[in-house]
Amino acid sequence: MNTKSCAACGSAAMVRATRDTTKNYKGEPITVPAVDGWHCPECGEIEFVTAEGAKRYSDAVGAAMDAIHSAKQAAELRATRKRLGLKQAEAAAIFGGGVNAFSEYERGIRQPSRSTLLLLQLLDRHPELLNEVRQFAHIGA
């Protein structure tokens, strides 16, 4: 049997094949090469042939999603810091993390703490609070 029905959409056109599969996540394509299974051309559903194949696919998609999330977060962090008019060194002095912290955050090498992200989001919405935060951090305005 070369075709079967799709459990997701009911199409009778699923095809058994090994093919590269592309999904979109947050507007970014994720391609997993050589996915072995039953592929639905109507809805994109995949029924995996082996548990190992399903795990390989899941691991690859998960890693790509993490990388996309990290890159988007790094770009947002950099844009927020620049909107606030902060140099990386000043941002590191205010939020902690060391001299190279913001460089590493903005390149996606390290993840900032949740409190750093929340405070940056707050300051992005209320930039008038920046001088007050500088005072609490003992940094000249």
Q: How does this structure look, described?
A:
With 141 residues, the chain is of the alpha+beta class. It is built from five helices and four strands. It has helices at residues 51-83, 88-95, 101-106, 114-125, 130-136, and strands spanning 3-4, 14-25, 28-39, 46-48. The chain has a four-stranded antiparallel sheet. The model has no long low-confidence stretch (mean pLDDT 91).
Which secondary structure elements does this structure contain, and how are they paired or packed?
Elements: E1 3-4, E2 14-25, E3 28-39, E4 46-48, H1 51-83, H2 88-95, H3 101-106, H4 114-125, H5 130-136
Antiparallel strand pairs: 1-2, 2-3, 3-4
Helix pairs in contact: 1-4
Record keyword descriptors for this entry:
4-stranded antiparallel β-sheet; 141 residues; 4 strands; alpha+beta; 47% helix
In short:
The protein is an alpha+beta fold and 141 residues long.
The number of helices is 5
How far apart the termini lie comes to 73 Å
Radius of gyration: 23 Å
Instruction: Name the helicity range.
Output: 40-55%
Question: What fraction of the residues are assigned to beta strands by DSSP?
Answer: 15-25%
The tally of beta strands, per DSSP, is 4
Instruction: State the strand order across the main sheet.
Output: 1-2-3-4
SSE run = EEEEHHHHH
Task: Write down the overall mean pLDDT.
Answer: 91
Form type: elongated
What is the assembly state of the chains in this entry? single chain
Unreliable spans are none
Structural class: alpha+beta
- Specify the biggest β-sheet: 4 strands, antiparallel
